[in-house]
C-alpha cells in the first residue's frame, strides 16, 4: 500500500489480511489434527512405513505411536501400538498392536479363545508362513536365531509376530503387508540371518464355500464318525474351509446344538509348521496333533474343539469323550493322508 492509500481502505485491507491469516492458520491446524500432513515417516522403531500403517488404520485422524517397547539386552523383546487420534471424531479410534510372542507353531490353526475362526482367515501362498483376517495377522519367524533363547523358554515354542486391530477392520492384504514388514524388523532384532523365510507372499488364499456333505472339509471320503455326534446336542451342521492354494488348510465344522459346538481341523505340509511341531514332545495323537513322515515330506494334522463341544462330549462320560476324540482324529487323519498322497500306516 502506498502512502496515498486512504486510511479507511488501508484499515479494511489490514483486517482482510488478518482474517485470511486466521483462516489459513485454522485450516493448517485442522489439517494437522485430522490428517497425516508432516507426520512421521515410520513407526514402531522404523519397522512400519507410514503408508502401511495408514492403509490399515483408515479414516480421519492423525497417526500416533502410543507405545513402543523394544529391548535387546539380555534378550530381544518387541511390542508396539499405533492408533488414529482426532480432535474432531468422537469415540475410540482404531488401534493397531504388534508384538513378538513365543507360542506353538499351530497356535492359530485350532479352536482358541483369542484366535477364533481359523477357517475365516486367508493363508499366505509363497514366501512367509502366516495368516490374516480383517482384524488379526500372524507370521511364523525363523527359529534358532541368536537372540531367541530366553528364561523359561520351551522347546515347543517358536517366535511369532502377532498383529491385532481393535475398533476397526482392514483389508487383509494391507494388514498382511504391515505384519510382514514388522516381522522382518523383529527377525533382524532376533539376529535371524535367513532372509528367504520372510518374503512377501505371492497371494492370499481365503475361505471357500463348503456345502457338499460328501466332500466334507473339501476332502473326499471324510465324514464325521457317529461317535462324534450327540443327538440334540451336537448334530451335523455347517463346514467352513479354506481353499487348496495354501500349504496350510483349515476347516471349522459348526455343529447344531446349544452354544454352537465347533470342531476345528487343520492339515499342513508347510515345513515351517511341521518342523516346529516336531520339536513339541506333546504333539501326539492323544493330544490331537501329529506330524507324519511322507514320501514328499512331513504332514501335520490337528484336531481341536471349542468348550461347547468338549462339554457336550464330557457330559456323555469320559469313555464316550475319548471314543469320540479318537474316532474323529483317526477319520480326519486318514482322509488328509489320502488327500495329500500320504496314507497313515496301520500303526498310526
TrEMBL record:
Record's keyword terms, sorted: Plasmid
Listed name of the protein: DUF3558 domain-containing protein
